[in-house]
Write a structure and sequence with these properties.
Layout: H1 51-54, E1 66-83, E2 86-105, E3 111-132, E4 135-159, E5 162-185, E6 188-213, E7 216-223, E8 227-242, E9 247-254, E10 266-273, E11 281-290, E12 296-299, E13 302-310, E14 313-321, E15 324-328, E16 331-341, E17 350-360, E18 364-367, E19 375-386, E20 389-400, H2 403-407, E21 410-411, E22 427-442
Antiparallel strand pairs: 1-2, 1-22, 2-3, 3-4, 4-5, 5-6, 6-7, 6-8, 7-10, 8-9, 9-13, 10-11, 11-16, 12-15, 13-14, 15-18, 16-17, 17-19, 19-20, 20-22, 21-22
Length: 443
């Protein structure tokens, strides 16, 4: 998939860098103090500051100013690779933001909010060493993709049981990929490095609705495609190969490529039910839809030079690295959430238990930048509320998108190390464990 220097290297040392998974899945982890414990299935019931991201209609019946914050206090991700040279794993452990928001009431009814959310936070790194009778190779790759959303939203009541909301969001995406390889095959030695990066800012509009009918609540959300405000991208690559008589130097550097990761339209539909036979129980099922787009150049083609040095002197020729592309497909992802209020207070606090599950199918149809990897997640948590204060502790487990993937490895085509070293395709698996702390306060 990631033939980073394929066009820039001589045929005798043809190299395709080790792939490091770069995921563009739209909800790898849910966002918001309740959503993060209920698989993101809160479209029909969300209220308070996190409504500014999940459904602005939830601000319609805001009674008091409130502030909320959610942080992934522990996020542990393991990326495992299986190659002919053996198995390799890479771990990422850190504290990562989730959502922080403030909401205030409006005279005459309704409310507004400002939120900072992080719907995409992904980083991975992996190292693989391969060695056989034909030679040896060392690959090192690192990738990251982060999205920060700053949103301003408003919600109000259109009727006794109908609430509506609108919002405006600025999506800021930051992408980076770094790779390096060192290989030796008989008399040929190869070293290569590669870096590509991109940043962009898009503006998006949102509109939402919530409807109450008896013991049922319904919700809907529409998020517009991204409208580009700013972008920048760059590629830098170099390699050196030699067989004792001839040395080949390759160099590419372009810092003005632009960066284009399409943000398609998104929509969600949700239904929540409070069965009268079980007081305190709430169930919700959502369907999240993201649109597709045609093939897009994430980073344009980059030009460089090849210099060959031998006993006869040196020659210089032009070379070109093909464009980095992505083709997104429409995906439909189900989400389910449950919360149950314990019948009796615990230490004078209202205690709720939360559970959730969701699928996050990859929107990537074809790409030589982003990985096509489906994910599935399970969430659980407990919250305690006393007066204006709510605190919650949640956990999530996210893994490759099917049961067989969860306990094994996923296939990743076109990740051969080098034909010269006789390495076949590698395979990968992803697992994340997340511990989340959330709190909200109503003034």
């Amino acid at each position: 998939m990631r033939h980073l220097l394929l066009a820039a290297l001589p045929a005798a040392a043809c190299a395709a860098q080790l792939e490091v998974l770069t995921l563009v899945n739209w909800q790898r982890l849910p966002v918001g103090e309740t959503a993060v414990m209920e698989g993101g299935a809160v479209l029909a019931r969300v209220s308070g500051p996190s409504s500014g991201y999940n459904n602005p209609a939830g601000l319609a019946r805001l009674e008091r100013p409130s502030v909320s914050g959610t942080v992934n206090a522990v996020e542990y991700t393991r990326v495992a690779a299986r190659t002919p040279g053996g198995d390799a794993t890479a771990d990422d452990l850190g504290l990562k933001p989730n959502l922080v928001g403030f909401a205030n009431t409006i005279d005459g009814g309704g409310g507004w909010s400002f939120v900072l959310a992080n719907p995409i936070t992904w980083s991975s790194a992996i190292e693989v060493r391969s060695e056989d009778d034909g030679g040896s190779r060392y690959d090192d790759g690192r990738s990251s993709l982060d999205a920060t959303v700053a949103g301003l939203a408003w919600g109000g009541s259109a009727a006794d049981t109908v609430d509506i909301g609108i919002g405006i969001e600025a999506w800021m995406l930051d992408y980076r990929y770094d790779a390096g390889s060192t290989a030796e095959d008989g008399s040929t030695v190869l070293t290569s490095t590669y870096t590509e990066s991109g940043r962009m800012v898009d503006l998006r509009l949102t509109a939402g609705v919530q409807l109450a009918v008896g013991t049922w609540n319904f919700g809907a959300l529409l998020r517009s495609p991204g409208m580009r405000l700013n972008d920048q991208g760059s590629i830098s690559a170099s390699s050196t190969s030699g067989d004792g008589t001839t040395t080949v130097l390759n160099h590419i550097r372009d810092e003005s490529l632009g960066f284009d990761l399409p943000l398609p339209w998104m929509a969600g539909l949700g239904a929540a039910w409070r069965p009268e036979a079980i007081p305190g129980l709430e169930l919700e099922l959502d369907v999240a839809i993201s649109g597709g787009c045609g093939s897009t150049e994430v980073l344009a083609s980059a030009d460089g030079t090849t210099r060959t040095i031998d006993s006869g002197g040196s020659t210089t020729a032009a070379l070109r690295l093909p464009a980095r592309q992505v083709d997104l497909r429409t995906v439909v992802n189900p989400r389910a959430g449950l919360r149950y209020r314990l019948p009796n207070p615990v230490f004078e606090r209202i205690v709720r238990v939360h559970l959730g599950a969701y699928l996050d199918r990859s929107p990537v149809d074809e790409s030589n930048v982003f990985s096509d990897l489906d994910l599935m997640g399970g969430t659980a948590g407990i919250s305690a509320e006393k007066g204006p204060m709510l605190v919650a502790l949640g956990g999530a487990y996210v893994t490759s998108g099917t049961l067989s993937d969860a306990i094994g490895y996923v296939s990743s085509p076109d990740t051969s190390l080098t034909p010269d070293l006789d390495a076949t395709d590698a395979s990968y698996a992803v697992r994340s464990f997340v511990l989340t702390i959330a709190s909200s306060y109503r003034f």
